[in-house]
Amino acid sequence: MGILRIVMLPRIQLLAVLTFGVAMLLIENQIQKLDESRAKLERTIARHEVAEVEQRRSEDRGARELSPLAENNDVVIIYNRVPKTASTSFTNIAYDLCGKNRFHVLHINTTKNNPVMSLQDQVRFVRNVTSWREMKPGFYHGHVAYLDFSKYGVIGKPLYINVVRDPIERLVSYYYFLRFGDDYRPGLRRRKQGDKKTFDECVSSGGSDCAPEKLWLQIPFFCGHHSECWNAGSRWALEQAKYNLVNEYLLVGVTEELEDFIMILEAALPRFFKGATELYRTGKKSHLRKTTEKKPPTKDTITKLQQSNIWKIENEFYEFALEQFQFVRAHAVREKDGELFVLGQSFFYEKIYPK
């Protein structure tokens, strides 16, 4: 029996070793199957993620196709229009185009047409313009002085545009407008209605409605909400107005060349002004507002006003704005056969690295 136990013991050990080996093979086989299953699952997840990414890209492309220039849908334009510079004619174009081009137009109506806002209204206005998403893209217009949005800590600033006019021509137009109105609202009673005194007679008699101080308007509208802006004849205000015109305004046109101003705006901002040039040329509303019974001033009247230091400074600003606009126009349009046309893109990219 002892010898039998000695002989049987190695056999049991061998069987145990074989059993253990078989078990290990089975376990390794299961592990391999699990690894293959995990790899298959990872590939499936990866394909699903790629499909999701491609779907999002396709949706984004579709959205861009459905909404051209979608990146411009947050743009806000502020037209702080100077009175009697053809501002109503231009604004009517925006009203005619807003439905077709899908943007909003909002009139900024201030109490007694005061162009200077209180500090609290400045804060409210900046907050409205920057956060009122339902009104974006938006075109705001009104007789308000320039307001520097950067003072209020906002990230996105609006695009300012404006139009200026020869100072004396603007004042003459305003003088007769207060007395006779215009063809926009012919039945409306004006503040000076019934006063038949001509502009020449007013200047000759030293009247307050035609005084040189009344010329002081375009500079403060561009200068802004500083107290010095409204001191008639201030050279500081002149320099500040020039600085703002060059650095804070996208484009400033002149009344005498309004069509060119509209043409350049259409080329630069088609999201808003696509079709504006043709509408201005052929539309009925764009030429509505014309002051009635306006009598041109005599040379003596003009000479007398030009002797004023206020006129000299206001006219310097107007000449500065005119020169800047003509510079922009010279690089934006060309004339051919008596017609102006907008230049196409004249820059391109090359040597793009890494390839």
From TrEMBL:
InterPro entries: Heparan_SO4_2-O-STrfase, P-loop_NTPase, Sulfotransferase
Swiss-Prot/TrEMBL keywords: Coiled coil, Disulfide bond, Glycoprotein, Golgi apparatus, Membrane, Signal-anchor, Transferase, Transmembrane, Transmembrane helix
Cell compartments where the protein resides: Golgi apparatus membrane
Ranges in a coiled coil: 24-54
Protein name: Heparan sulfate 2-O-sulfotransferase 1
Pfam families: Sulfotransfer_2 (PF03567)
UniProt record similarity statement: Belongs to the sulfotransferase 3 family.
Molecular functions per Gene Ontology: heparan sulfate 2-sulfotransferase activity
Any one cellular-component term (Gene Ontology): Golgi membrane
Bilayer topology term: Single-pass type II membrane protein
